[in-house]
Amino acid sequence: MISIPLSEIRQKVVDEITPRFNLCIEQTRARWKKDFFVIIQSLPKKKAEVPGVQINIAALEALPTPIFDTDMFFYEYETGELELIWSLPSEQYALNMYQNIEKVHPDDWPLLQHVVNYYDGTLFKMIAEWENRDGTIKREREHASRDLGQSRSTDLILG
Fold first, then answer.
1. pLDDT value of residue 35
2. How many CB atoms lie within 10 A of CB 115?
3. Cα-based torsion angle of the residue sequence 28, 141, 45, 55 in order, rounded to the nearest 10 degrees
4. Predicted model pTM
């Protein structure tokens, strides 16, 4: 069996969604004129006859609780800088990485750091720090969850 690093698979997904991601940032920047978060969430497709995942991309005013199969970014309006806050694979893959740290491919070490931060609580402490920062971000989790539920999605076939 040939082992393909998760980073290569994720890169293919990133290449497919980059135009939508950039459009989300451009539209939200023009509409809100303030700092915001952008979440990319992967969900299994509901139709079993068509394998793949559904990718949701949404701008959020609030920082939600970390969940698996998500990448979370912070966009700073004034500078135009984009910061990756976390990247988490599926729960099963994350747990496998965490339990087999010594076997993780070196290309996946940056992802492994996010996984370790999730399991050791560092990620949740970091979120508490975000919530205590001064700034223009509203950090109401209920609002963030509602926004995510209303996001547009794209079907991406992996094969």
1. 93
2. 24
3. 30
4. 0.74
